[in-house]
Design brief:
There is one protein chain. The protein is an alpha/beta fold. It has two domains: 156 residues, Nucleotidyltransferase, domain 5 (2-Layer Sandwich); 167 residues, ATPase, nucleotide binding domain (Nucleotidyltransferase, domain 5, 2-Layer Sandwich), CATH 3.30.420.40. It has 13 helices and twelve strands. Strands 1, 2, 3, 4, 5, 6 and 12 form a seven-stranded mixed β-sheet that branches. Strands 9-8-7-10-11 form a five-stranded mixed β-sheet. A hairpin with a 2-residue loop joins strand 7 and strand 8. The two termini are 12 Å apart.
Length: 364
C-alpha cells in the first residue's frame, strides 16, 4: 500500500488510539491529513472515548505487580480488545482509513533503566483489521538514550505551529515550545493521576470542574513537601511514569492528615505552581494552547492563569479531548512516509529519528 500523499490537496485518513496513564479510557480519533500552503493540515473527522470497564481498569492498574505470564496474557488480550473496538469504530462510521496508529497503554516507564513498555498487542490489532497498524513508538528513543517521552512535540510543531507553547493536562502535565530553533519538551508534574485518585476516595471518577478542590484550602506543609521533590530540580530532559507517581508523589499525599478537599486544593495549587515555574524559567510569552482532560477543570485553569501572564487558549472540546490521539495518528503518518517523528531535543535522545513498528496482514 502506498501511503504517500501524491499532491498537496490529497487527504489521507489515519486512526489514532491513545490510552492514558489516568485510565480514563480508550480514545479513538479518525483524522484526515493533507498539505496546505507547504504545511501539514488536519481535521478530526470523528472521535470517541470508550471507558474501561471495572475489570479492565483493575487489570491494568495492578498489572505491574503481576507475574510474567499474566503480563503477556494481558498484553495479547488488550490487543484483541483494541482490535475489535477499532473494527467496530471503523464499520460504525464507515471510515476509509489508510492506517491505524496505536500508542497502547503504558505499564512500565523507566528510561533510566533503559526500558519502557506499552501493551496492547499490535499483531492482534492488525489481525483483526484490514489496514496496517503502527505502534511501539517509544522504545527506539529509549535505546538511543532518550526518555521515550514526550512524543507529542513533533505534532505540536507541525500541526499547531501558531502557538508559542502547547500544554497538555493529562494524567501527567507536559509542555513543548520552540527554543533556539529546537522543539523543547518535558513532563512537568502529575495532574489527573493525582486528582482522579483523590476523587475516587469520595466515590467520584473525577473532580467535576474542580468544584471539590475549590471548596478546600491549601495546606502549606503538604505543598512544600510536593514542591521539593527531587524530580523538580532536574534540568535535563525528563519524563514521568506511574512508578515515580506511586513511589515518590502519592505517599506524600496519602500520609497527609488533612481532609480530602484540602488535599485536592493543595494538589491543584502544586500543579499550577509547577506549570508557572516552567513557563517563567523558559521565558515563554505569546499564546499557549491547553488541551487534555485537565482543561475541563475550571479551578485548575483559573489557578494557572492567576500565576502566569502568557495568554492561555482552550480550543473546542474535541481538540481538548483528542489531541493526543490525533498526534499519534500523525506520528503513524510520518512513520509510513519514513519521516522524522521523534525529536531528540524533546526526549533527550542522541538524534531525531523515525520511531515505531509496522504490522500488516497484507491485502484481504
Amino acid at each position: 500500500m502506498n501511503l504517500r500523499m501524491s499532491n498537496s490537496n490529497e487527504k489521507m485518513m489515519g486512526i489514532g488510539l491513545m490510552s492514558g496513564t489516568s485510565l480514563d479510557g480508550i480514545d479513538l480519533a479518525a483524522c484526515n491529513f493533507w498539505f496546505e500552503n507547504g504545511k501539514y493540515a488536519f481535521e478530526i473527522v470523528v472521535a470517541e472515548t470508550f471507558p474501561y470497564d471495572s475489570e479492565w481498569h483493575d487489570r491494568l492498574k495492578f498489572l505491574p505487580q503481576q507475574d510474567a505470564v499474566t503480563y503477556v496474557k494481558t498484553h495479547v488480550e488488550l490487543g484483541h480488545l483494541y482490535g475489535n473496538l477499532l473494527n467496530e469504530f471503523i464499520n460504525k462510521h464507515q471510515l476509509k482509513a489508510s492506517f491505524i496508529a496505536s500508542h497502547g497503554h503504558t505499564i512500565f516507564h523507566q528510561p533510566s533503566n533503559k526500558f519502557t513498555a506499552q501493551i496492547g498487542d499490535l499483531a492482534a490489532i492488525a489481525a483483526l483489521n484490514t489496514v496496517p497498524v503502527i505502534g511501539d513508538f517509544r522504545t527506539i528513543d529509549v535505546a538511543l538514550g532518550g526518555q521515550g517521552a514526550p512524543l507529542v512535540p513533533i505534532g505540536d510543531r507541525l500541526l499547531f505551529h501558531e502557538y508559542q507553547a502547547c500544554l497538555n493536562l493529562g494524567g501527567i502535565a507536559n509542555i513543548s515550545f520552540e527554543k533556539n530553533s529546537e522543539r523543547v519538551a518535558f513532563d512537568i508534574c502529575p495532574v489527573n493521576m493525582i486528582l482522579n485518585s483523590l476523587a475516587t476516595l469520595l466515590d467520584k471518577n473525577y473532580d467535576d470542574q474542580g468544584l471539590i478542590a475549590r471548596s478546600g484550602a491549601v495546606n502549606n506543609d503538604l505543598l512544600y513537601q510536593l514542591n521539593n521533590l527531587d524530580f523538580y530540580h532536574i534540568n535535563s530532559a525528563k519524563s514521568l511514569g506511574r512508578e515515580w507517581f506511586e513511589n515518590e508523589f502519592l505517599p506524600i499525599v496519602a500520609s497527609s492528615t488533612v481532609k480530602l478537599e484540602d488535599k485536592l486544593c493543595t494538589c491543584v495549587e502544586h500543579i499550577a505552581q509547577q506549570i508557572a515555574l516552567s513557563i517563567q524559567e523558559n521565558q515563554l510569552a505569546g499564546k499557549m494552547l491547553i488541551t487534555g482532560g485537565g482543561s475541563f477543570n475550571n479551578f485548575l485553569i483559573e489557578r494557572i492563569q492567576a500565576r502566569t501572564t502568557i495568554k492561555t487558549i482552550i480550543p473546542d472540546t474535541q481538540t481538548i479531548a483528542f489531541k493526543e490521539a490525533l498526534i499519534f495518528a500523525f506520528l503513524g503518518l510520518l512513520k509510513f512516509q519514513n519521516k522524522i517523528n521523534v525529536l531528540g531535543s524533546s526526549t533527550g535522545s542522541k538524534n531525531d529519528h523515525v520511531g515505531g513498528c509496522i504490522y500488516s496482514k497484507g491485502q484481504s
